[in-house]
Design a protein that fits this description.
single chain; mainly alpha; 2 domains; two-stranded antiparallel ribbon; 4 helices; 39% helix; 7% strand; binds zinc ion
Length: 134
């Protein structure tokens, strides 16, 4: 996965460096279990560099969703099944009625996982998703 360059100095980058020492004592981790790869991916996904713009963070975060099930980062709160504001699309917080978006519904990006750069980008992605399902 191509990754944007980290500054190495912000809080998020330091967190990533700390975790790297724990999960990757001997890089490259060719013998790592799926569990440690998942921990690592979760740490990366939850700690985008503080110097990146929202667009970069969004692309970075969405790329993790393409990983195979067993090493994908642990699900964010917005993905919890049955949660009132789960839109069915990871990273988007919206309340749907019978799978439809009410005209006055509020659609927001999830600020935890930051899969979308803005609320507007989240709305666009959700609309595209709903169209696909028809
Ligand atoms: Zn950084
Ligand atoms: Zn989220």
């Amino acid at each position: 996965m191509p990754q944007p360059t980290r500054c190495g100095e912000c809080m998020a980058c330091r967190e990533v460096e700390q975790t790297k020492k724990m999960v990757m004592p001997n890089p490259p981790f060719s013998h790592a279990s799926n569990d440690s790869v998942r921990v690592w991916n979760t740490t990366l996904a939850e700690n985008p560099c503080g110097t990146w713009d929202p667009e970069t963070v969004s692309n970075y975060r969405l790329a993790f969703d393409k990983l195979s099930e067993d090493i994908r980062p642990r699900p964010c709160d917005c993905e919890a099944p049955g949660a009132f504001f789960t839109s069915g699309v990871p990273g988007i917080v919206a309340h749907l009625d019978d799978g439809k978006l009410a005209p006055d519904a509020t659609v927001e990006r999830c600020d935890m996982c930051r899969r979308y750069a803005t609320d507007a980008a989240a709305l666009k992605a959700l609309q595209a998703h709903l169209l696909e399902q028809v």
